[in-house]
Every structure is written in structure tokens, then in C-alpha cells.
Amino acid sequence: MRTRQETEGIPRFADGETAGAHTADPMSDDPTQMFAPPINRAMKVLDRSFFQKTVNTSAARIFSPKDISRVRTDLDRSRDTLRTRLDGVRPDTDAARAAKGGKCLILKPEVVHNDRTTWSPTLQQLEQAGTVGVIPYELKLDYDYFTYSEVTSAIIPPPEKKNDDEIPTGFTLAGHVAHLNLRERYLPYKSLIATVLADKNPNVTTVINKLDNVGTENAYRTFQYEVLHGEDDLNVEVHEQGCKFNFDFAKVYWNTRLHTEHERLCGLFKEGEAICDVMAGVGPFAVPAGKKKCFVWANDLNPDSYRYLAENVKTNKVDAYVRAFNTDGTAFIRSSAAALLEDDRSVPIFPKVKFSRSAPKPTERPKPLRTLVQPRIFSHYVMNLPASAITFLPAFIGLYSNVPGMPSSKIRKLLSPHTDVKLPMIHVHCFSTKSKDDVAETKSICEEISRQLEFEVTPDTPELEVFHVRDVAPKKTMFCASFRLPEEVAFREV
């Protein structure tokens, strides 16, 4: 899977002609316009043949094929060459020369073939030495040359006002599915946008558009969608952190833009720790943590997420470490903490043995190098449900005060200062407003955590971090608040 999620920025083009091939003027006041696509704001169905353009420029004709590499190096250094996505080395315009391997090197627009004052000293020296000749060159551009952003900007009217929605360039990718979230003013152009997007991203075969808001219309964070291009096939395969995930994108929540957050949190987990993933989805935290030999209790309320989570655990061969559950998050926080206290689980670590066809397989299994024993206390809780995860925090109140069959005094002896074990870190995702320094947001998030736990947590609380995950919308940001579960909260009598 490609991890490329965003296309490049949108160049701004003035309205121009709307029919036929275009020839650019090399002496234009704005040379970049030479390589802008022709514009047709009236296009309703994509016409790829419309995007043909001839750019009149200059080229260095290289007389001997053996000089191609040297000439290119020299003219690159002197900044005489054309710097675009195109390969600047082109076939000679003379058919006989081209047949013998003759090449031309496209020069930048400022170089004019019949005006030596526009040539650099390097180009003049190469010409005087008989190594190159400077000739006019007609550079042919077509639909394949132009990017998604350039094509869509050429066929979709730009915003009327500065603050209006810009032409959509970003999309979320899940396997072969590109997921758009088009604003209302672009809906009339949705088929055009989807077709160009698929053309410019060869691995994309299905393009969909979201029709509602994730996390509000559906508790499982799924959404209604329409297919804009390709087949209605949302069974995808995604690769992340060395793991393979299979799922139906229509039935579960997945956001590839969170891959860095998945990696960040998993980077905090250490081998042998116990991790509780309360809203696990299909396993983007749980499965990589299992790869690190962490004992993971992973839960999701969505039955489809649970099913794919269990399948991904097996596919990635981490079932010795990761257990899947399908229950309510609040109940899971309390029940898993109690169950872990009594759960005897260990995993032997065997040496890696290489087999060959010539050497017989050993009849006896080697002795384990060591054995990982599952801890009694979770080291981390992951709560990746930003729309509402923070409201699950009251489940931690009295987490260890009323455990059936185990008095709190006995649980306390499992923790510091009696051992090296600390109460767990809580990582709760949430949404807030957007600002330059996140100071107000950090304070607001701490106040909400305090309200939910009935215990004061401030920006100065030791081990607290409010991490800026990503901007979701112009005025909306996703954060991850991490803090150590306070002892007063965990052992409060309720």
C-alpha cells in the first residue's frame, strides 16, 4: 500500500481558451504558465485529448551520444536545463540523428536559441567547442504530463472568494480505495474529480465520497458513501508498521492519516508490557504491539471490527500475545483490569532455527531462551475514540477498589513502592479547537479530564502530555492526552 495521502498544492491559473491544442509563448512574463494545462471550465465529461499543448522552447543538440552524460551534468550545474517533471533528455528533432541515438537536452525558457545573450558561459563554451548546437524545440505535453491538481484546477471554477473552499486535493487512501470528503460546491464535479484522481493514482481502482459525519451518525464510526469511480468493492488490504490488515472499509473505521499516531504510541510500548486497547478497531495499535511481544487485550464494540481484529491477529501471527474482545468500552476497562490480576499467561521465546533441505529437521523442539510472563497491571490504556473517549474516563474511578476476591491492600503491594510497577498511563484521544500554540486547548482538555475523573489534572501535572495529533478541520484539532492514572482515582472507594 502506498502511504501517499496528499497531492501537491494547487497552482492558480487564469481562465484561458477552452478548445484545441495550445502553443505557449516562451517569452511570456510568467514562464511557469508555459507548462500550465489548457483550461476548460465548461467540461462536464473528462476529455483527456483536450490536454494537449505545444511549448516552444530551446534545446541543446548533443552531436555525439558519448557526450550526453557530460553535457547534462555541465548544463545542470550551470542551471541552463529545464527543471520540470519531464526527463530533459529528448530524442533529436532530426529523424536521421534520432535513429542513430541522437539526443537533445531541453533548456529553460529563458534560453532563446537565436539570442546568445541568453546563454550561460557554460552553454556558449559547449557550443563553441562543437559539442552542442542550440536549436528551437517544440515540446509536446499531454494529459499524462499534468498532475491531478493541475487538471482539476483547469476544469473546475476556482473559489469566488478568498475564504471559500479550495479545490479538493486531499484524500484518504485505504488499499485500492480513495476516500473523498467533498464540500457541497464541488458535488457537481464529483465524477470529474474521481476520474482524474484514479487516472493519476494507478493503484486506486475505487473512489468514494462520504455522505455523513463519522462519529455522529453512527456509533461504530462508519459512514454512508457513494461510489464515484470503479466498483463498489471496499474489501481492502493495508500495510502499516510491518503488519497486514484486511477489512471491509464500509463496515469498520480506518484512517490512514493516523499512521504516524499509531507508530508514535506503539513506540512507547516495551516488550513484555500489558496493553489495554479499549477502542481497538481492526488493530492498528494492537497488532503492531503484539509484534513487539506486548500482551494486548484489544476490544471493540463493533462486531465487524472485532471480527477483522481477530482475523488480523491470526494473519500477523500475534495470537500468542493479542486477545480480541467485543464489548462496551466502559465495562471492558473495569473487567479487563480485574481479569488481568488473575490471568496466568506466559509465552516461551524460542531461538530462531534455520532449516535447509540438506539438513534434517530436529526431532526435539529447542529449549526456550526465556519466557515472557504477562504482568498483573496494564502499563498503558489506549482510548482512540476522539469524539467521545474522554467520557469513558469515569470507568477508572475505583478501578482497583472493589475487585472481586482481591482486596485493594493486596493490589497495592503489586505496585510502587513495593515493586517497580506503576499505575498505567492513560492515552485518551479527543477533539478540541485549533490555535498556534495549543495552550488554551491543553488547559481545556485538562479541565475536562479533571471533571470526568473528579480529580484535578493540570498542564503542570507530572507525566502529563497533550500531544497535537493532526488538524482535522480549519477550526478542529485531534489531540492525545497522556497521563498517569492517579492513585487516588484508582483506589477510590465507590
Automatic annotation (TrEMBL):
Record keywords: S-adenosyl-L-methionine included?
A: yes
Q: What is its EC number?
A: 2.1.1.228
- The residues that the entry says bind S-adenosyl-L-methionine are H262, D300, L301, D328, G329, N384
SAM-dependent methyltransferase TRM5/TYW2-type domain location, by residue? Answer: 171-487
Known InterPro entries for this protein? MeTrfase_TRM5/TYW2, SAM-dependent_MTases_sf, TRM5-TYW2-like_MTfase, TRM5/TYW2-like_N, tRNA_Gua_MeTrfase_euk
Record field: catalytic activity: guanosine(37) in tRNA + S-adenosyl-L-methionine = N(1)-methylguanosine(37) in tRNA + S-adenosyl-L-homocysteine + H(+)
UniProt superkingdom: Eukaryota
Q: Which PANTHER family match?
A: TRNA (GUANINE(37)-N1)-METHYLTRANSFERASE, TRNA METHYLTRANSFERASE
Q: Under which name does UniProt file this protein?
A: tRNA (guanine(37)-N1)-methyltransferase
Q: Which organism is it from?
A: Karstenula rhodostoma CBS 690.94
